[in-house]
Amino acid sequence: MSTMKTIITSMVAIYLLTSFTAIYAQKPVLNKTVNNPGKAQVVNTKIDNTITEEMTVKVNTMEVKYITPTGGTCTFTVNSKSPVTELGVCVGKGPAPTPDNNKYFPKNINGPSFSVEITGLVPASKYYVRAYAKNSLGTIYYGNELSFITLNPKK
């Protein structure tokens, strides 16, 4: 009988030890699952993407027409869900003009379509033009680039 008591006592001790070990081992796993920074990152990415989409401005440089020896007229569109603080057309003698080059602003600011008169250019010269818009965060969005050649003056 004493052997049986020893076996039963040992089995109960092993059972209790195993149970406590299993409970103790699960605690860190539960903490790691609850404090998973990956889930917070996914939520933030979704929020950041929404903010980025709301702040994105779409600009399309349409055409340059009515070209003269010293300029022309450029039409463009701007579509944005957020406020646009500045919009216009950049003109330069080289590709990829920026607002740091010559810039022209539309007279009518009711969009989404705009027209800008470009003036003061050199006759018989090639120019590059692209529309741009700046959002309230200061990010500049550019439209596609076009090029044109001013006319020779009539003699």
User: Could you estimate the helical fraction of the residues in percent?
Assistant: 25-40%
State the shape: rod-shaped
Order of helices and strands: HHEEEEEEE
CATH topology of the largest domain: Immunoglobulin-like
Please provide the count of β strands: 7
CATH top level of the largest domain is Mainly Beta
Q: List low-pLDDT spans.
A: 27-48
**CATH homolog superfamily of the largest domain:** Immunoglobulins
Which class do the helix and strand fractions yield? alpha+beta
Distance between the termini: 129 Å
Query: Main beta sheet, described?
Result: 4 strands, antiparallel
Radius of gyration: 34 Å
Strand order across the largest sheet = 4-3-6-7
Number of domain units: 2
Q: What's the rounded overall pLDDT mean?
A: 79
Strand content: 35-45%
What does this structure look like?
The protein is α+β, with helices and mostly antiparallel strands and 155 residues long. It folds into 2 domains: 2-53; 58-149, Immunoglobulins (Immunoglobulin-like). 34% of the residues lie in helices and 39% in strands. The protein has helices at 2-34, 37-55; strands at 57-68, 71-80, 84-92, 102-104, 113-118, 126-135, 140-149. A hairpin with a 4-residue loop joins strand 6 and strand 7. Mean pLDDT is 79; it is low at 27-48.
